[in-house]
Amino acid sequence: MTQDDPIGRLLDFLHRSPTPWHATANMATRLEASGFQRLDEREAWQLAPGDRVYVTRNDSSIIALQLPNDPLVALRMIGAHTDSPGLRLKPHAAQTAAGWLQLGVEVYGGALLAPWFDRDLGLAGRVHVRRADGRIEGKLLNVDRPVATIPSLAIHLDREANNGRALNAQTQMAPVFLQGGEHQDLDRLLKGWLAEQHEIEDIEILDFELGLYDTQPPASVGVAGELISSARLDNLLSCFMGLEALLQSDGSQGAVLVANDHEEVGSASASGAQGPFLGDVLRRVVEQRVGSDQEAFVRLIQASRMISCDNAHALHPNFLDKHDASHGPAINGGPVIKVNANQRYATNSATAAMFRDLCREAGEPVQTFVTRADMGCGSTIGPITATELGVPTLDVGVAQWAMHSIRETAGARDVASLTTVLTAFLNRRGPL
C-alpha cells in the first residue's frame, strides 16, 4: 500500500476497524498525522483562524473541524456513522451446552442473521479495567484471529432450512467458543488477551462492550477488481470517503466531518446524531469565532450545508423487482442522491440541486434512489441532524449490495467518484 493507493488505504482502514471504537481511533490517528490537534470537551478551547482540530465522545464518535483563515460565515459539513449491525456480547456472556463454552449475544441493529453462520469470528471492542494502583481506564481489545463460530444445523436435520426458516437469536445463534469450557472463566481469558496486547498483567475487568466480527479480510473482487468486499461497508466506507475528502481539501473553507455512533439503533444517545454532540461542538466554535448570541449561531447554520453520507441499495441482478424501475442505482455508476417524500431522507430539491451541480463541476455522474412505493424505507443521520440543527441537508451514498450482512459489496470506482465530489464541496467558495 502506498500514499497514492486509496483502495489500499480503504481496505486497511476496514481491516483495522472492527468496532466503532477502533474506527474512531483510526480516524483520529490519520487526522493527527495530518496536523489536526485533539480537543477535550472538559477543557476550555482557544480557537484561532486556520485551526484544524478534532474531538471525540464516548471514544466511538468523532468530529473534525477545519477553520478558515477568513471570517467564518458558513460550514461545509459531511456526516456519516461509525457503527454497523452485528452481534454484541451480553454482560454475563459465558454459557454452556453439550460440553461447550458459548457466548451469549444480542443483536445490535438490523443485522442480516443468516450470513453469520459458519464464519471465522474474532472478538473486539472496549474493556474497562482497574489496575493494581486503583486507576480505571478503558482499553481497546481486538482478538483478530478466529476464536468462535456459529455452526449451521445440517440439512439432514432440518429439511426445511432452505424454505425460509426463521432464526431465533436467543436460542440458535450463541457462538461456540471453547470445548470442555464448563468451568472456564471468561474474564480470565479476556485478561490473557489484554496482557498479550497491552502488557497489562495485574488488572480487574470492571466491564466491557464487545462484539463478534468476521476475520476474513476486506478484498478487491472481480476480474478487473471492480468491487470492494468487506464487513462494515455500511457505513465505514462513508467515514473513509469523508475523511479522505477533508484531508484532500485545500483548507480555504470552514469544514466539518462528523461520524456518529448508534445510527443503526436509532441515534438516540449522547454520541448519536439525535444527541447534543454536534450542536455542543458547533456552539462553542460559533461563540469563539462568530459571536455568542443565538442569532449568530442560527445565521451560520442557515448559511451552511450538510451532506449526510450513507450507502444506497444497488440494483441487484438477481432481484430486479425489488427496485423502482426508474430508480435502481448501479454499482460503479457514481454517487447516489437518496430521496424519500416522507422525510426518511433529508434531501430536498434545493440541496439535491447543489449536489448535482457539484457532480457537474467535478465531472462525475450522479444517480437517484427512491424506494418502491409498496416497500418501507430505511433512514440515516441526515433527517436527524437536520431536525436537531436546522441545517439544510441531503442524503447521498454509494450503491452497495447485501446491506447489513456480515459481508457487503460496493464498487471500487465509486469510492474515488464520491470522494472527488465531497472534496469539491469542501473547497467550494461563495454561498452554498
Give me a quick take on this structure.
This protein has 432 residues and is of the alpha/beta class.
Polypeptide structure, described:
With 432 residues, the protein is of the alpha/beta class. The chain has two domains: 275 residues, Aminopeptidase (3-Layer(aba) Sandwich), CATH 3.40.630.10; 129 residues, Aminopeptidase i, Domain 2, CATH 2.30.250.10. The protein contains nine helices and 20 strands. A hairpin with a 6-residue loop joins strand 19 and strand 20.
CATH H level of the largest domain: which superfamily? Zn peptidases
Helical content (DSSP H or I, runs of 4+): 25-40%
Count of DSSP E strands? 20
Strand numbers in spatial order across the main sheet: 1-2-3-13-4-14-18-16-17
Amino-to-carboxy terminus distance:
36 Å
CATH architecture of the largest domain: 3-Layer(aba) Sandwich
> Can you summarize the main beta sheet?
9 strands, mixed
Which structural class do you get from the secondary structure elements? Answer: alpha/beta
Number of domains: 2
Question: What would you call the shape?
Answer: globular
